[in-house]
Each structure stands twice: as C-alpha cells, then as structure tokens.
Write a structure and sequence with these properties.
Shape: globular
Oligomer: single chain
Number of helices: 10
Radius of gyration: 19 Å
Strand content: under 5%
Helix content: 55-70%
Amino acid sequence: TDPWVHWGIISDWLEANHITALAGERFTKYASFPVMHLNILFTNTITGLDPKNSYYLATVVLYATSGLVVFLLGQILHSSRVGLLAALLLSIDVFNISWGGLMVPTSLGPVFFVVVMWMVCKKVLTIVEKAILVLIFLTMVYLHPLVSLAMSIALTLFYMGTKLFGRLGERPPESAGTGLNLLILLWVGTIASWLVASASPSSTLFE
C-alpha cells in the first residue's frame, strides 16, 4: 500500500543520511516535497519506535487534531453547537476513517487546510499569527502539489468573494481574510514547486 511505499523512501533516506531523488533504484519526486517524510524520520530517530508506529505517530495523531480545528472554525462562523456538530460529522465520515489509516502526504493536507481557514476567518491576525500563516504556506508547498493548489484556489475564491460583497454594497464577513500579498506568495510558491519537481522527465506533478 501507499504508506509502505513512502516508508521505503524514508528508509532509503535514512540509510543515505540525506534526501535523495532515488529511492529503491527509481526516481521519486518526493525529494522535492519531503515534509511528511522528514516528520516521520524525526519521529523514528527520536523515539526509536518501529517503522509502523513511527509512521502513525507522526501522521495519524496530527490528522486526528483536524477535528478540533473544525470545531473552532464552526464556533467562529456560527456557534459552539454548530462547531461540535461539524467536528462530529468529520469524525464519523467514512472517507476520513478509511484514509486515517492509510496516510499519504495529501492526507495531511486537510489538517493544514482547516488551520489556515480558521486563521483566515478570525477577525484579527497578529504579526506572530501572520508569520505562522506564512510558515504554514511554505509547509504546504513542500508537502504535496495538490495540497498547495487546493489551498491556493480556496483562498483565491475567499478573497474574490470578500471583494464581491463590497462591490455589491453588502457587508463583507468579519474576518481577517487573506491579503493579496500572502495570496500571491502562496501561488508563486505552488507554481515554483511544480517547476522544480517537473525538472525530471520521469516525475509528474499530480501523481
């Protein structure tokens, strides 16, 4: 399955003591998007757990926290009861249950997605929170092309929707929103990462 393919990549990196584009005598584009793999590597090195437990500790635990962030997001948008209902529906969703045990880089995308949306929907962002948002953007860029693409499209629609509210004379939602500079930063990072990953003819962008 996919998790063990990724563990094979991590094992090769561990033996080589550095990130290499070759894993199991074949090219892997994940050398350009190593966030999840490095997280698992750190967990394995620090805890000394076996490969399976290192993999799940570094990914599944983080994945499970997305329910808490969904609750906070629902609380901001409507009320605590709505946030609790949203978190409950997310927790019992068949897709989340299935893929919660088959972790791949894109599986961590929803975690970053809901965190970003929660920060964007807050009324005010401090300088520190903006810096954290930029750090999350960069992490998403080096996690997987589809993750940063989905986030870029979502935030672009959010930005356009906010501007459209103002054009129509309606009161836009009270939220910090995403500045145009941050939005451009995310798109540039996303496109640049694609160009780097596609430098080898044996790699694909969306695999």
